[in-house]
Structure formats: structure tokens, C-alpha cells
Amino acid sequence: MNTGIRFTGEGIPVVEAARIMKKDQQFIRQAMIKNLLPIGIAFEKEGSSQYDYYISHKLFYEYAGS
């Protein structure tokens, strides 16, 4: 099945995912850290309490349909 959608490997910004899902950014971040939102990864930076987030276009589309 060809949907015409092309996935480039670039991530979706947290702010965009939050807007599409009608949630706030902190909801997206916390759900990813706790592995409750299967749309990408939350990676804790070594030696830090900060995280980097990668939201996959493919996983987001499969989960949220957008």
C-alpha cells in the first residue's frame, strides 16, 4: 500500500507533537520519559538530568494518525 507519505528520518519537534495531540509539551516529555508514549525516545544526557527527545514521524503517524 502506497500512502504517498515519505519519512525523512528527521524528528518532529515536541512543540509540534503537543499541538497536534492537543496536549502541553510537558505531557509529551514526561510520557516519553516514562515510556508511556511510543512515538520516539527520550535520552538522558550523560552526566546531566536533562533529556533530548526524538519523535519519529513514522511512529507518531502510526500512533496519532497525523
Structure in words:
With 66 residues, the chain is α+β, with helices and mostly antiparallel strands. Helices cover 38% and strands 15% of the residues. It has helices at 14-21, 25-33, 57-64; strands spanning 40-44, 51-55. A two-stranded antiparallel sheet has the order 1-2. Strand 1 (40-44) and strand 2 (51-55) form a beta hairpin. Helix 1 (14-21) packs across helix 2 (25-33). The mean pLDDT is 89.
Topology:
Elements: H1 14-21, H2 25-33, E1 40-44, E2 51-55, H3 57-64
Helix pairs in contact: 1-2
Give the spatial strand order of the biggest sheet: 1-2
- General form: globular
Structural class: alpha+beta
Question: Mean of the pLDDT scores?
Answer: 89
Q: Which radius of gyration do the C-alpha atoms yield?
A: 13 Å
Low-confidence parts lasting 5 or more residues at pLDDT below 50? none
- N- to C-terminal distance: 17 Å
Biggest β-sheet description? 2 strands, antiparallel
Helix content: 25-40%
Counting DSSP H or I runs of 4 or more residues, the number of helices is: 3
Strand element count: 2
Observed structural traits:
single chain; 66 residues; alpha+beta; 2 strands
What is the structure about, briefly put?
With 66 residues, this protein is an alpha+beta fold.
